[in-house]
Design a protein that fits this description.
Layout (H helix, E strand, L loop, with lengths): L5 H8 L1 H20 L2 H29 L6 H31 L5 H30 L7 H13 L12 H14 L7 H9 L17
Length: 216
C-alpha cells in the first residue's frame, strides 16, 4: 500500500494514537484539576480519535508479525508487545464507549473512576511502547536480513565521522606511512658521520687525515 509493507505501515500508524491517548489522559487530569469544560471536551475527542488510531495500529501490528523474519528472542518480545497492545486497546475502547454513552451524565465519582481507568491505560500503553522499542533498537525487528547483513559488513569495515574540511581516507594514508616507516627504518649513522656530528661539523663533512680538531 503506497510502497509500505505491513511492518512499515505499523511503524507509521503506532505513534500518533499513542500521543493522542496520552494527551487525552493529560487533558482529563487538567480538566479535573481546573474544572474547565473546554479541557474535558478536548479530552473526549482526543480519546475518540486515539482509540480509532489504536485499533488501526493493533491490526497492522498483527499483520506485521507474520511478515517479519525473527528468532526465538524476538518472538518472545513480540508476544509480550502484542499482549500489552491488546490490553491497551481494550482499556481505551472500554473507556471511549463508556464516555460516549455517559459523558454528559457522569457525576464526580464516576468521572474520577473513568480518569483512574485512563491512567491505568496510559501505564500499559507506555509498557507497550517500551517493548516495541526493544524489538526495533535491540533486535532490528522488521529490518530485512540482507539489509542487516550489509549494515554489519559496513560497520565491520569501519566508518568514522570527519570534521569540516577533512576527507575520508586521510587516517588510512597516515597509517600506511607509519607502517612503511616501521618496515624501512632510517639507516644508522656510520662511525665517520657520528664523529662529524659530535665534532659539530656539518652533516656529510669528513676532514682529511692530520687535520687539527675544530675549535668551538
Amino acid at each position: 500500500m503506497f510502497g509500505y509493507d505491513w511492518p512499515r505501515l505499523h511503524a507509521a500508524l503506532n505513534d500518533l494514537p499513542a500521543a493522542l491517548l496520552i494527551g487525552a489522559v493529560l487533558f482529563d487530569l487538567l480538566a479535573a484539576a481546573t474544572r474547565r469544560e473546554g479541557l474535558r471536551i478536548a479530552s473526549f475527542w482526543t480519546l475518540m480519535l486515539g482509540t480509532l488510531g489504536a485499533a488501526a495500529a493493533v491490526i497492522s501490528g498483527l499483520q506485521a508479525e507474520d511478515h517479519i523474519a525473527h528468532g526465538e528472542a524476538v518472538h518472545r518480545l513480540m508476544e509480550t508487545h502484542e499482549r500489552l497492545a491488546l490490553i491497551t486497546a481494550g482499556i481505551f475502547a472500554v473507556l471511549a464507549l463508556w464516555r460516549l454513552l455517559r459523558e454528559n451524565r457522569m457525576g464526580q465519582a464516576e468521572r474520577a473512576l473513568a480518569l483512574a481507568l485512563g491512567l491505568g491505560g496510559a501505564g500499559v500503553l507506555t509498557a507497550t511502547g517500551v517493548y516495541g522499542g526493544k524489538l526495533v533498537f535491540q533486535h532490528a525487528a522488521g529490518v530485512p536480513s540482507e539489509v542487516l547483513q550489509n549494515e554489519l559488513h559496513e560497520r565491520a569495515e569501519g566508518h568514522h565521522h570527519h570534521g569540516e574540511g577533512e576527507e575520508h581516507g586521510n587516517g588510512d594514508a597516515d597509517h600506511e606511512h607509519a607502517e612503511e616507516a616501521h618496515e624501512h627504518p632510517a639507516p644508522a649513522a656510520t662511525g665517520d658521520s657520528a664523529a662529524a656530528t659530535d665534532s659539530g661539523a656539518p652533516a656529510g663533512h669528513v676532514d682529511p687525515p692530520g687535520t687539527p680538531p675544530h675549535q668551538h
